[in-house]
Amino acid sequence: MRIVSAQQLEEWLGNGRVLEKDGRGPKVVALNDGHFLKIFHTRRHPLLARLQPAARRFSCNAGQLAQRGIRTPQVIETFWLDRQSGLSGCLYHPLPGISVEQLYRQTPQQIDELLPALADFIRHLHERGVYFRSLHLGNIIRMPDGQFGLIDILDLRCRQGALSAWQVRRNLAHLRRYLERRKLTDFPLDALYELYRHPAHSQASSTVLTASSKSK
């Protein structure tokens, strides 16, 4: 990976719009050319961060998701921002759409229509061996064509076969804890679980909802 100069980074930060940051600084920046800059702050030892740069893991995860037919940001380039400390970054094409969490906060009464498709999407991930420890409503994007995709995919592992029952339970439990932290305990999570466990029910619900929407 090339090393980005301090001047280039300053230019990106100065001209871009910071979308996400924490106590360590900007994390995601929207650039004027439509690309996003993602900065991977790390608490790992610098040696480990240099051996396994977060930007490269992010890019590899994006590639593995694409191979499985799962939409995610398209990485353009990975680079070092400070190789000595292990600070890396990347440029990527953002995934168009809005997060499921944003949709729910804006129009909670419409979430029931999305539940069958959302359950199918999560099941699709698990059947294709995607274990996303940070799976939550803020990282699932509803795109303009009605499909779902994933963002913020650093904390993700892909395996050859489907996830085990234990991994599925752990992943779904993480989703429940996330809703509790975000004070979204009124989200119909139990209904989502039921649709996840019974695909035929999910498809039937989707058909009923589609027919209902067409009749209006």
Low-confidence stretches: 204-216
Mean pLDDT: 90
What is the CATH H-level superfamily of the largest domain? Transferase(Phosphotransferase) domain 1
Broad shape: globular
Count of DSSP H/I helices: 8
Helical residues, percent: 40-55%
Overview of the molecule:
Helices cover 45% and strands 23% of the residues. With 216 residues, the protein is of the alpha+beta class. It folds into 2 domains: 2-93, Phosphorylase Kinase, domain 1 (2-Layer Sandwich), CATH 3.30.200.20; 98-215, Transferase(Phosphotransferase), domain 1 (Orthogonal Bundle). It is globular, with a radius of gyration of 19 Å. Residues 204-216 have low confidence and may be disordered.
Comma- or semicolon-separated keywords:
216 residues, alpha+beta, disordered C terminus, Phosphorylase Kinase, domain 1, Transferase(Phosphotransferase), domain 1, 8 helices, 11 strands, 2 domains, 6-stranded mixed β-sheet
